Amino acid sequence: MNKLQIRSLEQYHENYAQSVSDPEAFWGNVANEFQWMKKWDRVLEWNFTEPNIQWFKGARLNITQNMLDRNAAIRGDKTALIWEPNDPHEKSLTYTYSELLEKVCVFANALKAIGIKKGDRVCIYMPMIPELTVAVIACARIGAIHSVVFAGFSANALADRIEDAQAKLVITADGLNRGAKQIPLKRVVDEALEHVACVEKVIVCDCLNWKPSMKAGRDIWWKDVVEGQAIACDPEPMDAEDPLFILYTSGSTGKPKGVVHTCGGYMVYTAYSFQNVYQYEEADVFWCTADVGWITGHSYIVYGPLLCGATTVMFEGIPTYPDAGRFWQVIDKYGVNQFLTAPTAIRSLMAFGEDHVLSYSLDSLKIIGTVGEPINEEAWNWYHVHVGKGRCPVVDNWWQTETGGIMISGIGNISPQKPTFAGYPLPGIQPVLLNQEGKEIEGADEEGYLCIKFPWPSILRTTYGDHERCRVTYFSHYNGYYFTGDGAKRDEQGMYRIIGRVDDVINVSGHRFGTAEIENAINMNKLVIESAVVGYPHPVKGQSIYAFVVCEHEIPKENQDLARGEIMESVVAEIGKIAIPEKIQFVSGLPKTRSGKIMRRILRKIAEGDVKNLGDTSTLLDPFVVDEIVEHAIK
Ligand code: WT7
Fold first, then answer.
1. Which residue's CA is minimally distant from atom 7 of ligand 1?
2. Ligand 1 in contact with 486 (CB < 6 A)?
3. Which of 474, 505, 554, 564 could form a disulfide with 501 if both were Cys (CB 3.0 to 4.6 A apart)?
4. Where are the domains of the chain?
5. Which positions fall inside the Acetyl-coenzyme A synthetase N-terminal domain (predicted)?
6. What's the pLDDT at 628?
7. What is the mean pLDDT of the chain?
């Protein structure tokens, strides 16, 4: 892939200009670096009104042929995947390109043997173990659509996602390791499946030797299903626009939606963005600390690196186990050259002081990345000085589940860096800032709504089973633009700074939740009549969740902690521990307009502790409710 690599700032500007003046020539040229079973008739056809976006129309390919067969042929003995276990004393595992190809083919044949076909949906709910990566790629091998659900989600959340995708198969494990804890997974799957009818089979991987109960006729062990399977499996020919996967993500309204990515465009863009942002060279080792359950793991642990013939590290554990030096130890252990993590991880490690990071050399590092939420200047500096030793560029990757790949970011050591600025758009990405009226803002240093005015190959195509929802959510706010939901600023050099969400989405430790989703979970509790949830700044998590809750009966002070615990349980049951509100305040009513709309603006200010600037409250249905909330606000 290094033919695609941008080598200088000048070249970046040239490529960028070409990608805007002739996008079809630009992306056609990039796409020519891949193996296609049949070339496209047309590079791009699109409109943002339906929306209908088709890249490489008429082409046929299989993404796994480009990840595995192609690399096995030219670098078969190169390590494709390094797996580092949760416990540093346990044995790590490595797979060469040839070995990974074989593992994937064997499992792909197993999937076929149990009746999984092209187009079927397969839900993957697994620990961060090599079998997760194998399962993902094996689905792509046979054209089954994977829907990976992060293993921290609850049974109800899992059931919703299985049901929405109408998955036939669930792939899971007995349980998972997370630092000093072990967490059951199979039990969660069993509970989820009590409520859904579409699942025919469950494949269970043995991770902890727990021997969970197995339902006869439905549940099969991984080791049994792969037994005797052939080591070759032809890649299924796919249309460029056939779905590759579904990944659920939260928005400002309703239940999480299944973002759909397709085979051709996603392949081209994840490889292109990986190669450039991380300036990958043949002998390099790349490590992204995300979980494969999120888009970052899909694009930059699995697909992007393997498409580029890279060595990619997959880490089962957490940054603070057995101690806060774990990341740095792993970097030295494998000589990691490019490292990608989240601001929340950086901030939590900062709190343990410099000693941990100073005990490791980190000499191998060349480029360090950050992703998932805005990074504050203090964390940026700490990362740059103590991890990057002032010598590695920090690339701040702004993108979204919906964009499939990195959109705005530094490019290795090629483009300028500025703390808290993500930087320039990658070639092919045309961001604009819009004002309230939907007009493009031209000048510098003004804040606007971040939109994209032209398609790129890995833009979402639809939301699964509900195309209208895709249109309304992303393409109806501003005519002719994809709306990101983020606010941003642009400086005089054209660099972008992402400010944060302008909709009702909260980003807690890089995890994305809709306020409505958390409110629904809280309202499930029998004590509760209604609730309103807002985000407020948190020193480590970026944002944290503050819930204002109206109960059927007033809860006496001495019982409030108990009631809080029960409400948290409801959130754990509906979504998972990751969505627990940090603060729960019982209130007698919520500030509403006369038309019944909750004034979140006011609640946000209260949650931030900024009670002097509540703005005009006179139009509220009951202005006095605000005084009561302010008086009892949780500090
Ligand atoms: C939202 C997308 C990017 C993949 C992981 C999260 C925020 C993401 C950055 C960044 C500032 C960022 C945005 C975006 N975000 N990266 N570098 N700087 N904000 O994907 O769960 O789909 O969340 O995360 O608000 O809209 P996601």
1. 373
2. yes
3. 505
4. 505-631
5. 12-66
6. 95
7. 97
- Indicate whether residue 65 lines ligand 1 (CB < 6 A): no
State the pLDDT at residue 3: 86
Dihedral of the alpha carbons of 566, 569, 574, 576, in degrees to the nearest 10: 150
Angle among Cα 377, 382, 388 to the nearest 5 degrees reads 120
> SS3 string of 497-554?
EEEEECCCEEEECCEEEEHHHHHHHHHCCCCEEEEEEEEEEECCCEEEEEEEEEECCC
Q: Is the CB of 328 under 6 A from ligand 1?
A: no
CA distance 299 to 471: 24
Confidence of residue 102 (pLDDT cuts 50, 70, 90): very high
Average pLDDT over residues 179-205: 97
Taking the alpha carbons of 146, 149, 151, 157 in that order, is the dihedral positive or negative? Answer: negative
pTM for this one? 0.97
Measuring from atom 16 of ligand 1, which residue has the nearest CA? 372
The radius of gyration of the chain from alpha carbons, rounded to an integer in Å, stands at: 24
CB proximity list for 581: less than 8 A, separation 6 or greater: 518, 522, 533, 544, 545, 546, 547, 567, 568, 571
Arithmetic mean of pLDDT, 87-108: 98
The domain 505-631 is classified under which CATH number: 3.30.300.30, 3.50.50.60, 3.40.50.300, 1.20.1070.10?
Answer: 3.30.300.30
359: alpha, beta or left? (left if phi > 0; alpha if psi -120 to 50)? alpha
CA of 536 to the centre of ligand 1 (A): 17
Please tell me the distance between residue 171's alpha carbon and the centre of ligand 1 in angstroms: 27
Q: What is the pLDDT of residues 215-227, one digit of tens each?
A: 999 999 999 999 9
Contacts with 22 (C-beta within 8 Å, 6 or more apart), sequence order: none
**DSSP code per residue over 302-359:** IIHHHHTT-EEEEE-S-TTSS-TTHHHHHHHHHT-SEEEE-HHHHHHHHTT-SHHHHT
Give the per-residue pLDDT at 615: 83
- Predicted local distance difference test score (pLDDT) of residue 409: 98
Output the six-digit token pair for 568.
Answer: 């948290």
| Alpha helices for 416-514 (secondary structure H) | 467-470
Which pLDDT score, from 0 to 100, does residue 254 have? 82
Residue nearest to atom 17 of ligand 1 (CA): 398
Q: Which two tokens stand for residue 319?
A: 């940054």
Beta bridge partners of 483: 451
| The amino acid at 204 | V
Of all helices (H) and strands (E), which one includes residue 287?
Answer: strand 285-288
Please give the Cα distance from 254 to 238 (Å, whole number).
32
Between the alpha carbon of residue 586 and those of residues 198, 569, 581, 590, the distances in Å are 40, 16, 13, 10
ipTM of predicted assembly, 2 dp: 0.99
Phi, psi dihedrals of residue 61, rounded to the nearest 5°: -165, 170
Atom 18 of ligand 1, nearest CA residue: 374
Residue count of the chain, please give it.
635
Among 270, 400, 474, the mutation site with the greatest number of ligand 1 atoms within 8 A of its Cβ is: 400
Crossing angle for the helix pair 263-277 and 23-31, nearest 10 degrees? 90
